[in-house]
Amino acid sequence: MPVNADGRLVGDRRNAADKGRSHLLIGAAFLLADVASAATPANAQSSVPLPPVSVDQPTQKRKPAAAAAKPAQRTQAAAAARQRSRNAQPAPPTPSERAAASAAVLNEAKLHYRAMPSSTTLRSGASPLDTSQTVNVVPEQVLKDQLPRNLDDALANVSGVTQANTLAGTQDAVMRRGFGDNRDGSIMRNGMPLVQGRSLDAAVESVEVLKGPASLLYGIMDPGGIVNTISKRPELYQHGSVTLLGSTYANSRTGADGTIDITGPIGDRGLAYRFIGYGVSEDYWRNFGRHREMLVAPSLAWYGENTTIQLNYEHREFITPFDRGTAFDPATKAPLAIPATRRLDEPFNNMWGTSDLMQASVEHRLNQDWKLFAAYSYNTETFSANQLRITGVNAKTGVETRSNDGTWGSLSNASYGTSYLQGNVWLGDMRNEVLFGGDGQYRTIYRDDLIRQATPSFNFYNPVYGLITPGTTVSAADSAQTDKLGQWSLFFQDTLHLTGRFALVGGVRYMDYDQLAGKGRPFITNTNVSADKVLPLGGAIFKLTNQVSLYASYTQSLKPTSSIAPLTGGVVIGSNIAPEEGTQWETGVKFDFNKRISGTLALYDIDKKNVLVSQLNPTTGIVEYRTAGKVRSRGVELDVTGSLTDNWSMIGSYGYTDARVTEDPTLAGKQLQNVALNTASLYLVYDFGTTLPGRLRLGGGARYVGDRPGDAANSFVLPAYTVADLFATYETKVQSFPVIYQFNVKNLFDTVYYPSANSILTVAMGDARRFSLSATVKF
Fold first, then answer.
1. Strand, helix or coil at 461?
2. How far apart, in whole angstroms, are the C-alpha atoms of residue 620 and residue 183?
3. Mind listing the pLDDT tens digit for each residue in 634-672?
4. DSSP symbol at 158
5. If we measure between CA atoms, which residue out of 231, 316, 234 comes closest to residue 275?
6. Closest among 734, 726, 727 to 694, alpha carbons compared
């Protein structure tokens, strides 16, 4: 007969209690699996308290009859004990046990590349099938398996993304649907803007890309979209891990790094902590340079019945090579005939600095239909850099002219706050999913002292390094570079569900903004803009089935046309110069089959006007900017991620991006710089499951980027490339501790490739082949 699952009077008391607790956890795991399969991907990450769990205990075996000679009182005591056992209530699982069971369900889904978008990207917890915009996800397990070196490496898994000018490998810079640059305000952490150069670190769990104009939700932005990095959050059960990794390139270029990640509850009232620490010291893969970095990232969270509070902080210190890459021969347009490892600058070409990020958020459920969200973020980064800037090369003689430049006292910061209400309003039988709120941002980019100093020429065929020291001559006319941007906005969006399968989306943002930019001592203002703008959004969603939906949308973007330095001819950008404005039409199909494999097929058309383009001035050796009139980007994108079978998982993409200038006196018809017509990627993983003593997973794949113009004039072309990677992980136990060994090979065939260019004299080089071996101990 079923009894309550306390188990305290069955056989040995301690063993029975342990078995009863095990039954509870097993029951919780099965219940959570049902909850997870019914929940949307966005809701799968929520902290909603789990329902109570009860488990039926197997019927107890009948004991042999007692001897007739036993005292009556002993028989009565046994009967009373049995009665108390029948009446006892099951011991409910603790919050820590519930969290552990929930994590077990989610971790298995993550292991199979399940894409679970964060609610911070689209400001809602709606399923991707119920939205009219495209969000592509690089899941947590993909980052663990591939070990990307930086954000643009991680985004090789996403369609239509290529690398832009990374400022000598020190800044995140990705082109999305043909648009983007470093410091363009498009890189986010938990839906709030960053200014730090490199945003992918040990505190990041996953990466998401909102494609197309995102100004309705994010204000001033390029029409390519935003990249949202999602933080690892505190969890309500105690666990942690320590990882040690060793790596090597060719020519004895080695390195090591370590990560510690600990999380758990504080007390039993929903408070949790997390601490992440990371350190790395590694040789640069070229002939000199070393990268060292340290990250400390504590965080706190409180998960209440209706309220969730998140607090996180990151402090990062770094020194990294400032490497502009190589140059192409201006005559033949081919790469210089020198080894890929040979640098054209000096060993003192480095950037060093610190960054700090502080974020806080509160989500409070007012009732069954409405919730309130408020968040604040402050990010600051300081750095200095030495740079031997290449001003000319002669491929016949090997003579290279350089300028001994540098930047001292760079300071960037972004302060951002947002608050919004999200909920449902019913009009008869029609549900309105409403989002209403506002945000404000103030961002500053400042460069204190700019170094400009002449230096002797250099022969790259027979290089002799170390004959010069870093420059010290401050150029007053180039110093005090300043770019200040402030914006304040209100936004509203409504998804009107006309039927169970058809919905219309409408939204509007009112935005007021100011921007000031210039340089020099005395300071010369080159941009001074103050304006406002109304930006609309429209869309439609039609769900063919519960697993497939069609969508269409119209979106706009706005970005003030600004410049720190005067444009060609000394033009000053003022309020009379219109901002860059983008409009996009998009349609496509989204699918999510059996909560296993999901993806998007999208077709889009973007038009943008008042665009700045860059071009190298061969006389001065300086890259100059000017307006290009109108450009457009049209394309098709396919992104798929998830599990094909119980053993096979995959993430793949294909992007066709036709981005070119449509109106300009000299550039009409030219392709946009660093934008490839074709990109593709495919990564497959096979999980051997429990067929071996431990758990073995093998994976590998490749990414392809077609040829792309290296400058606005299309005067030279960066050749197409394919780069292959592979990995293997083996999970076992060592003295009862789970241990994961992982082996990675990046750039398996040691391909020499050029991911981006700023000009023909500054062409970035992709990393050489890299081997790494790591061990992770979980506890």
1. coil
2. 24
3. 999 999 999 999 999 999 999 999 999 998 888 899 999
4. S
5. 234
6. 734
